[in-house]
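Need tokens for this chain, all 106 residues.
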Amino acid sequence: MATKIMLKHPASGMLKKGYYGYSWTYLFFGFWVPLIRGELGTAALHLLFGLVTFGGWNIVMSFLYNKQYMTRMLVERNYVLAGSESENEFARMKLGIAPTGAAIAA
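Here are the structure tokens for all 106 residues:
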């Protein structure tokens, strides 16, 4: 089951909902999920892969999609987690993100 957390773009102040965990929505609706979230290129690729694999792609991606979406939002689009500190910490743990200010092990 996916868990919701708010994301905020520091420069614009825009808020968006982000999710992490298993995506039942993606399992049932497939490429429509990235399409509705505004990821047109991703939606086109997912439609293609879904057609080629006769829907098998949806089963695999339902485990992966939310983490990939959050990674794109946090890394490529520079959003930051905007929940409470405990929510942010739990989301970081689930997404495999280092805690804020943590030193990188060499």
